[in-house]
Design a protein that fits this description.
Layout: E1 4-10, E2 13-15, H1 18-25, E3 33-36, E4 43-52, E5 57-65, E6 72-74, H2 77-83, E7 90-91, E8 102-105, E9 110-113, E10 117-120, E11 123-126, H3 128-134, E12 141-146, E13 153-162, E14 169-173, H4 174-179, E15 186-191
Parallel strand pairs: 1-14, 2-5, 6-10, 7-10, 11-13
Antiparallel strand pairs: 1-15, 2-6, 3-4, 4-5, 4-8, 8-9, 11-14, 12-13, 12-15
């Protein structure tokens, strides 16, 4: 049975609908691929936005593509405190009901999201075959032990997300990475 997973750090970013992309970057605009990400078909775009917070702004925030069905802003808890958003919940991507909204802007336009700001719940992407290898199923909650030089830790409450268009990887945010001195190529051990 398999038990190790690559650990990747997911920095603050924004997902946009095609309509929002066109408001922020111009009619008919398509996101420009800057770098492909580990999840198949996902990419960091050249385009950047400013997140307008109640206290201060976050500038040049990365947009991830392709376009989504709903706009979503994924921040660390530190980011939220820094810009004055006090009630962003820890959620799985796409679970947006009851989340705070925020305004996104560029030199070309501005979009206000009624909801969509989350602190992403730590998670592992797996295919069906990976899940079978790990003895897991979709929505299982596991722990992952990460060994680092002087700051090893175990992440609890890690949700397993299973879909055949995923690639095996655990995603944590920058706050979590900083707590464990995690950078570069790191693997974790899944504990059920």
């Amino acid at each position: 049975m398999k038990n190790t997973v690559p650990v990747e750090v997911s920095a603050r970013h924004v997902h946009l609908t095609q309509e929002q992309i066109e408001i922020l970057f111009g009619k008919g605009h398509e996101l420009t691929v800057k770098k492909m990400l580990s999840q198949p078909g996902q990419f960091a775009a050249e385009e950047r936005v400013t997140i307008v917070g109640p206290k201060r702004n976050l500038e040049r925030v990365s947009v991830l593509g392709p376009a989504r069905k709903a706009g979503q802003v994924e921040l660390s808890m530190t980011d939220c405190f820094s810009i004055g958003i006090k009630d962003a919940p820890v959620r799985e991507s796409g679970v947006l009901d009851g989340t705070p909204g925020v305004t996104l802007k560029t030199d070309m336009g501005e979009v206000t999201l009624d909801q969509g700001v989350i602190v992403a719940k730590r998670h592992i992407h797996m295919t069906e075959a990976d899940a079978a290898d790990f003895g897991c199923k979709d929505k299982d909650i596991v722990s992952v032990k990460v060994e680092t030089n002087g700051r090893s830790l175990t992440f609890d409450d890690v949700v397993v997300r299973v879909r055949d268009d995923f690639a095996l990887a655990m995603h944590i945010d920058t706050d979590e990475a900083n707590a464990g001195s995690i950078s570069g190529d790191v693997t974790g051990t899944v504990i059920k």
